[in-house]
Amino acid sequence: MTGGVEVAVERLSKSFGKANVWSDVTFTMPRGEINVLLGPSGTGKSVFLKCLMGLLKPEKGSIFIHDTDLVRAKADKLYEIRKLFGVLFQDGALFGSMNLFDNIAFPLREHTKKSEREIRDIVMEKMAMVGLTGDERKLPGEISGGMRKRAGLARGLVLDPEIMLFDEPDSGLDPVRTAYLNQLIVDLNQKTDSTFLIVTHDINTAQTLPDNIGIMYHKHLAMFGPRELLLTSEDPVVAQFLNGRREGPIGMSEEKDANEVAAEAGGKGKALFELPPMKPQIRPTDGGVRAAEGRRRDRVMGMLHTLPPKAQAAIQANLTDEQRRQYGVAARGEAPTQAGQPGWFDGGPGRR
């Protein structure tokens, strides 16, 4: 495995004819971290994934990977960059006439010159990683939807991608199998250290899986940052989406009239209801740590002073006593420190 890569999206805009999908999208996915993209239906999340892979061309903006701008890259360079991506499509996108082994081996046979012995070793390794050992000869029509997802995931992993994209991986799965898949995603991130981006509508997935969360709304990226930022946000869009409530700025047509939103919020522009309690992030099955965790902690602590108080408190609550000493954060049970006071992290150990 080669590990992940940073992906920097700058001022990206996409339209189909006169119909604008989204505009001025800017954010950075840190290498090796798990990112989730939320948003109401019809906000262009899947379109964004296709732009990220170079399958659709945005009208404006840039996507930088390894210092290459995919939007302006020539065809041969774009072809090489696409090999850095692995993709799990909504339905697994398996070939119905091929057994699972041949489905998973397909990218290796198509894009490499590896021998059949090498291909077999790689395919069997990936099938073991997703729990499909012994199912090599089964056809897609002979297995469950959850198994098809895992087979699609194994196929996405065979080229050791630096960036793994998941387009609504929970689509069509019941809550139990979604939970199993989410655990598998965390375990795979631990093993590969690849950069993951997951598009989902599943609220539990958004609450427990990612390091960072973004939300698409009203033809732009309304928010992107550490999971604690969005999960403690008082933004009405975020609160409505995480609670799954009818009341709020998100309507059937995706956007509501400003007067209607103000009336529902009592004219205060605040969330109409409390956010659900913040759930702990899923840990690797073996009890170990992901390589991205330490990098993320350094990065988030370096930006702590720029975050709202609730997000700061949520981040500090997850620090061990040793980490609190490292970053100069007040010990448990002591009054939380504020900017400019002793104990405030202002660029000390670990900042990048």
Model description:
This protein has 3 domains: 7-217, Rossmann fold (3-Layer(aba) Sandwich), CATH 3.40.50.300; 233-277, no CATH class; 292-352, no CATH class. α3 (100-111) packs across α4 (116-129), α3 (100-111) runs parallel beside α5 (145-157) and α4 crosses α5 (145-157). It has 13 helices and 10 strands. It is 36% helix and 17% strand. The protein has 352 residues and is of the alpha/beta class. The strands form 2 sheets. Strands 6-7-8-3-9-10 form a 6-stranded mixed beta sheet. It has a 4-stranded antiparallel beta sheet with strand order 2-1-4-5, covered by helices on one side. β1 (7-16) and β2 form a beta hairpin. The chain is globular.
| Major β-sheet annotation | 6 strands, mixed
Uncertain residue ranges: 255-259, 267-271, 339-352
CATH topology of the largest domain, by name, is: Rossmann fold
SSE-based structural type: alpha/beta
Corresponding CATH architecture of the largest domain = 3-Layer(aba) Sandwich
What portion of the residues fall into strands of 2 or more residues?
Answer: 15-25%
The number of domains: 3
Mean pLDDT: 85
Number of helices: 13
At the fourth level of CATH, the homologous superfamily of the largest domain is: P-loop containing nucleotide triphosphate hydrolases
What is the level 1 CATH name of the largest domain?
Alpha Beta
**Shape designation:** globular
The amount of helix comes to 25-40%
Walk across the major sheet and give the strand order. 6-7-8-3-9-10
Instruction: Tell me the distance between the termini.
Output: 25 Å
Extended strand count: 10
Order of helix and strand elements from N to C terminus:
EEEHEEHEHHHEHEHEEHHHHHH
| CA-based gyration radius | 21 Å
